[in-house]
Amino acid sequence: MSGEKKTFSVSKYSKLIILAVFILALSILRPKAFLTVGNISNVLWSVSVIGIMVSGTIYVFLLGGIDLSIETLCGLTAVVIVEVVTHMGNSVGGVIVGILAALGVGALAGLLHGFVITKFKVPAFLVTFATQSVFLGLSMIITNNKIVSCTKPKLFTMIGSTWVSIILMVIIAAFSWFLLSRTVFGRRTYAVGGNATAAEISGINVAKNTILCYVISGLTTAIGGIVLASMTQQAMASTGSGYTNDVITAGVIGGVSLLGGQGTVQGAIFGAVLMGLLNNGLNLMSVPSTQAGLVKGIVIIVAVAFDAMQHADQSRKKVRKVVKKA
Amino acid sequence: MKKRILTLALTAVMAIGLLSGCTLQKTVRVDKHSPAGEGTAVGGVSNKVKVDPYTEDVKIAYIAHDLSTPNNQAWLEGIERETSSWSNITVQSFNAESSAETQVQLMADAINQKFNAIIVQCSDGTALAPSVEQAEEAGIPVITLNLDADTVHSALVMAPDYDAGRMAADKMAEQIGENGNIAIIQGVPGLHRTDNLEKGFRDTIANYPNIKIVDAQSASFEKEKAMTVMNSFLQSHPDLKGVFAINDAMAEGAALAAESAGKGGGQICIWGADGEKDALEMIENGQLSGTIYTNSWDQGSTAAKIALLMMSSEYSYNVLTETPEVIMEPVVATKDTVGTIDEKDRW
């Protein structure tokens, strides 16, 4: 067994290998433009909102649940912070109150989701599908369906600036990783997602765990909304549209199973970064938008197939090992 | 069958008319798709019933492409302003949330509910053509805004597109000293208006031999996506002197990206098109170089006026050979001229 430990396992690092191949390819194709601090920070900045949100929604995915309300909750929280800041005279205090209010809305939304799902046994798909519409409606009413601009104060516009949003993403992802892989709560989440009945029988409070997961998801979505509002210095009902799809895609590309029980934060972040690199590469190569979709789709299939193949190999090896032992 | 015979008969009559020399002079625009052919009236069926919109109860449907955009919202406000003095006129707005399919359904609903007029911005001119035709056949005048339907209907009220691109190009060329590399941030490809804007811009830039369009990427009309696109422009073309964005939201995003890369404050000449309030403010602050402004409130109320006129007239679309157009006045807004746009005209 000791010999096996020494051999380099491709499967364990397959995601990093894919990223390396990507970075290498783009560095060769666009030597001057790609491998600069400016460009790499652009890539990370462009995926920071997705990265922040997926770090929290991954808990919902791990439960085998889904959150379709990500984009409209993101929009609602963006609207909340911008409205609070502008109503409080664009003051620094307004920003702090606004952030708290937005986080409150996010947490409350998560609490509502978790409560309805566990208490009334309504499928997550239905609950979040309905709330998606509720959040959109609320944003429309609050903003009167108009764009609310907010270009001051500096504290507000700073949140979405390149480095702050990247650092936020790293901190949140790291925290989420810690929570998921190093705490009892994390292990319980995997257990509930793997088999809720078994988890219940073994003494895990499934309902409490589920509600907590949805609250975390709501919180990170709210942070995403805050960053997005600051980035664009405005908010409207349609802020965040398309993000549900992006977040789920990032997760799935990163190996998170929508059936629950499988996936890691670092995987999901990998998914987000890969998408960012892909978009960046297409832009740098000046691929016309008419062809970009085709190229993007093919590259994603190749990358994900490579990743999946490595994991299949690994599990086959495991089976073989077990068989040998027997 | 009856309808087809009638159409054929009318076409024949018109053809004879053509041969005998009573041709209408017709100016052909680059983007025009007239299904009826040269100088031939549609001659379709119309069940139009004349109403008096100032005494009888009438209702106008406004079917927006995406009601959350400032432009679509300004149109609605324009329509409402125009009709607010008459309590017998109701305006109902519908939101297609950027989907042509939804718009087709909303059109069918509006026809079934017997609205007296429909004002619509067609997300897709081809997809909406049968719905527009159905409405006109049912006697409901259809007025399109900016994005045309590929069928003859009561009126099109549009902001200039090709010309707006041309004006932006000329002014930008002047601002960058008729020399240097520039790039375009595109909207969703395939829409008449945006394609024409880009075409107008490209055709005009071609007159300046020292200006080169080095890149063009889509940001789907979104501010945030435009920031990413602009960032990659800045990486791949460090010598970039100008950027033309097909709409203001994207121009604003490009300006923010340029600022955070330390190239703000007009170092790169960034142009948009539409003239929304925020963009005008950014021009005043020197963050944006210019935009082509049109008064969208006025555009909405113009559409409403035409709707009222058409309801009360005995004319119907079937006497038309092509869709009549009202083109809104374009204003080239730069730091020098933006002050001439009155605060109350900023939507």
Structure write-up:
The complex is a heterodimer of chains A (326) and B (347). Chain A has a single domain (31-307), classed as ABC transporter involved in vitamin B12 uptake, BtuC (Orthogonal Bundle). Chain A is mostly helical and 326 residues long. Helices cover 77% and strands 1% of the residues of chain A. The longest helix of chain A has 37 residues, at 289-325. Chain A has a two-stranded antiparallel ribbon. Chain A has helices spanning 2-6, 14-29, 37-62, 70-87, 92-119, 124-143, 154-159, 162-182, 184-194, 196-201, 206-232, 243-253, 265-284, 289-325, and strands at 148-149, 234-235. Chain B is of the alpha/beta class and 347 residues long. Chain B has 2 domains: 44-158 and 297-328, Response regulator (Rossmann fold, 3-Layer(aba) Sandwich); 162-293, Rossmann fold, CATH 3.40.50.2300. Helix content of chain B is 40%, strand content 18%. In chain B, the strands form 3 sheets. Chain B has a 6-stranded parallel β-sheet with strand order 2-1-3-4-5-11, with helices on both faces. Chain B has a 4-stranded parallel β-sheet with strand order 7-6-8-9, sandwiched between helices. In chain B, strand 1, helix 2 (70-83) and strand 2 (89-95) form a beta-alpha-beta unit. The radius of gyration of chain B is 22 Å and the shape is elongated. The A-B interface holds A 30, 33-34, 36, 38-39, 42, 45-46, 140, 145-147, 149, 161-162, 228, 231-234, 236-238, 279-280, 283-284, 286, 288-290, 292 and B 66-68, 70, 73, 186, 189, 215-218, 223-224, 227-229, 231-236, 253, 256, 260-261, 278.
